[in-house]
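Quarterly update from the structural biology core.
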Amino acid sequence: MEFIKQPMEIETRSMEIIAPYLDRLNLDEKAVKVYSRIIHAAGDVEYAPIIRIGEGAIEKAMAALRSGSDIYTDVEMVRTGINKRKLASFGGEVHCLIADAEVAEQAKAEGITRSMAAMRRFGKKLDGSIVAI
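Predicted structure, tokenized:
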């Protein structure tokens, strides 16, 4: 078996595999890009028909990113997948507190998940920011 070893080739091939699952959904170009990224990250083309993006959400997200909004997330997997260099070029940063010792203590004390405690810890910082769960 021949393996693809170049990252861009892998991504290109992945998008080729995903494309037929999106063709029948009548998506505009921006939605195709978002759906493709979601499916690529999840590794499951079966997500295609169940993804829902609210009216104007993509445009609002793009405007928020371009205006330097920060991104807050509850897990490292999401934080890791965000292009921090590109985000920084707009003035934004990505934040995740899942590994914070105080968050772990709070979660244990309140009987909640660390994700819940982390998001609560962010508090008002979430207002006007992008939240990626």
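The beta strands are 71-73, 94-96, 130-132.
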